[in-house]
Specification:
Elements lengths: L1 H15 L12 H18 L4 H6 L4 H9 L1 H14 L2 H9 L12 H14 L4 H5 L7 H14 L3
Helix pairs in contact: 1-2, 2-7, 5-9
């Protein structure tokens, strides 16, 4: 519930900031990525839970341990798929509850999207991160930030 409220708040704040919705490519994995990262970020502000519960909606230490310990590898594979696969295949592998064939774990895009938001918050004001898709080149910004994150040590 908090996650879905996060989506609504994301759109409301974007609207108040004057987003040109025609610029937002609704069919792009970059858009979905930003939306899920922001919704997860907001859900952590609204509900106190263990980190794994924000992604799996239940206790799952194995899931969060894998995601945390393999973050750079996961990001590299996600970036590779963004350039090699069509949007539907990216959705199924990275966002769908029925996906996750590569690592045997579904919805890993939610985790790296949240980590992406946390990384951006180190450099930008919160409202600028939340409304990142106001930038005409928001997809390039996301790709470049992820590429930097893939290089960093935990």
């Amino acid at each position: 519930m908090a996650h879905e409220f996060g989506h609504a708040l994301h759109h409301l704040l974007s609207e108040k900031k004057g987003i040109d919705w025609a610029m937002v490519d609704r069919e792009s994995p970059f858009t979905w990525f930003l939306q899920e990262g922001i919704a997860t970020y907001f859900s952590t502000k609204m509900v106190s839970a263990r980190k794994d519960e924000y992604f799996t909606f239940q206790e799952d230490l194995e899931w969060i341990t894998f995601a945390t310990n393999n973050k750079q590898i996961i990001i590299k594979e996600f970036l590779s798929d963004l350039t090699a696969l069509d949007a539907r295949a990216v959705y199924f592998e990275w966002f769908s509850i029925n996906g996750g064939k590569r690592f045997g774990i579904n919805r890993l895009a939610y985790f790296i999207a949240y980590e992406f938001i946390q990384s951006c918050l180190q450099e930008l004001a919160e409202l600028d991160v939340i409304t990142l898709w106001r930038n005409i080149n928001y997809q390039d910004i996301i790709y470049q930030q992820l590429a930097e994150m893939a290089k960093k040590n935990r």
